[in-house]
Amino acid sequence: MASQGLQLMGVLLAFVGWVGTIATCAMPMWRVTAFVGANIVTAQTIWEGLWMTCVVQSTGQMQCKIYDSMLALSSDLQAARAMVIVSVVVGVFGALTAIMGGKCTNCMEDPTAKAKACVVSGVIFLISAFLALQGLLFFLL
């Protein structure tokens, strides 16, 4: 079994990745498109995300519009939303399992059970990462 420092570092990195997944879920910059007209005054940048679309003018003014209807969304966007949300929920279970299996906790007394819980936690975090990447691919492709 790994040392306590390695175990804490692994859990910390997995937690940082999970928080990053939550942050990217909320951001509108999943797909960025720029339009530049004949002059710089007509330049626009369009940000498309899971929950809203934003248009940034060349003057710096930004207007965001939240998607109105679930029925109007494409199936790719709905699948991407679902996979990212499921990824975040699965990450919660990974974090709870990592806490239970940590060497510095007293949730379980048996060292072999703690080791198995840590392995299960790692697998759960990998599944969470795979789901987040699948959601990204559904949205972008």
| CATH class wording | Mainly Alpha
Order of helices and strands: HEEEEHH
Derived from helix and strand composition plus strand pairing, the structural class reads alpha+beta
Instruction: Enumerate the spans where pLDDT stays under 50 for 5 or more consecutive residues.
Output: none
Fraction in helix? 55-70%
Q: What's the CATH architecture name? A: Up-down Bundle
Tell me how many strands there are: 4
Radius of gyration: 20 Å
| Order of strands across the main sheet | 1-2-3-4
How much of the sequence lies in strands comes to 5-15%
Short précis:
Belongs to the claudin family. With 141 residues, the chain is of the alpha+beta class.
